[in-house]
Amino acid sequence: MEENNNLKKIQEAIESLPENFSILEEQIDVDLQMEYFEFTKDKDNNQPIDNFEEAEQLLYDDNTTETEKKQLLVRLAGHDKVDAFRIIERFKDQSEGTLRNWSILALQESRMILQSSLLDEQQVFISTGLGGKGQKIRYFITLLNSQTDVEFSEAQKKMITEEFGYFLEKSEGELEEMEFTEGFAVGLFLFPLKKNLQDIFRSFIDECNQYGSFLKEDVIITNVKRLTVDEIKEFLKQEDQKDQEEDEEKN
Fold it and tell me: What confidence category does residue 92 fall into, taking pLDDT thresholds of 50, 70 and 90?
């Protein structure tokens, strides 16, 4: 019941979104995103910058610490000035690792502030760990063989890939990757944020299972990160334990 209520709340939030919204395209670790958003809440990190040229020099100075560079990027992102946006953009193009991802987030914030200032309307920004494209969110999916630990046959692999791609395209989605490993089918796909994912899976799985019921109805799907095989197995183990505990409570 709680899970259904949560899904309902998420769906209601999605339906209330304006027609124009931005989705972070890059795949950035959710923990780093949370760190960025928490960082922006600190008043010390939101002080205005008087000298953009000096700020840019400090970004490239080896004596400037990573934390100080993060602060500079956040402070620059808070300005509704094209000059600030360009400084962040240039730094992003030459930076690496954590600072590059941090500058991507700062650039997105800067872009939103600029658009809000120019268009005189509030901008909505959506970010996930796997990013997206246009108004589509990227998801990671795991499809499970109905016979646990059994590899999909070549014919089944072909059917899964072709049918899933077909049903996605019907809803303006896009299959980016599909791989098969240790009895799992795992993939990445893009799907319009405002469309219902559940309908796709129900139709896709029903279609495939007309030829041998080889797919479980339950799927693992996330927009947070790619899951490893070990993480998938651990998740399935935990779900089995929950089912066993629920059965014991009923008895």
Answer: very high
